[in-house]
What does this fold into?
Amino acid sequence: MKKIFIFLGAIIILFFALPIFKLIFNISAQTYLKTLQDKEVLNSILLTMRVSFLGVLTVLILGLPLAYVIAREDFKFKSLIESIIDIPTMLPHTAAGIALLITFNNRNFPIVDTTFGIMLAMMFLSAPYLINSAKEGFRKVDVKLENVAQSLGASPLQTFLLITIPNARKDIINGMLMMWARGLGEFGAVVIITYHPMVTPILIYDRFNSFGLKFSAPVAAVMIIFSILIFLIIRYFNNKIT
It folds into this structure.
């Protein structure tokens, strides 16, 4: 049984890893160097990472209290609230982009072709990963720890910030990481709202349509390498947390 499971697991690991490594190692060092010297590419990667990270911080502030309430309380329409949180994960991304455009774009505060519009699209489709992970983390925290803290004079807010969040931090950080990673790859919703300035997925698409694989593959590879490095570093230190 164990050998069968290892064999089946190896197949799915290869399915994930093979296209990534094939892309990365199919490009010459000279092409990588040329791509890294391309200001459009670097600006696009920095824009994508910065906006996605700002989206994560925004959802961290707005979403953690909601995740805590869902984890700790039983209330009417709780299942409905959880379903609403999960809806973005099942929507076609272009449909999500159109919905955001109809809802938030107006003459006084346009979101078309703005970094704020990019952030809205990334947040809408990736926030559930952070909220749901934080919710599971809060459920793992023993309520007795919170009760003891409050019995010693800590306020509910102090207890939340100093006891609950630190004890749920592994799940919260994993959720942040998944949300950030999901935001980095967002294309469908972003392209509806903002073609310029170009985030990296749109730049890859634009170069593929205009010039083909020769010019789009190096951009994709550089973005993947940057993302993997940051992902591995954060995951490594998060796994060190006890």
Summary: DSSP finds twelve helices and no strands in the chain. The mean pLDDT is 92. The CA atoms of residues 1 and 113 lie 54 Å apart.
